[in-house]
Structure prediction request, 116 residues.
Amino acid sequence: MNSPKESKREVVQGHRPRHLINLSPGTQHTRVSESTTSFAYYTHKLHKQTITSIQKRNANYKAYADLYKRVRDFNVGVYMMVRSRPKQYPSGIVKKLHGPFKILRRINSNGYIVDL
Prediction:
């Protein structure tokens, strides 16, 4: 069992220190390591170059994908086929839609209100 002298020792982050801890503030004059500074500068520069490279690649991928993208805008009053996903409806609801449906209102480029 621990002696009374040991139990009076303060616990620092779950461990008992072996020596006294100096909690006094350090001196204002600190020396910065040249190699540490150059390594931090190199890492920061490499990080920026990587981010720039990724942004350029993503822009190229988007430009290539947009070449084959078809934009379809439907006007109010035209008929269109509707695709439904069964997961969106509770059980017992008819899951198949047959025939073209008339567009009543356009919400945005991808959303329409249709006459079901």
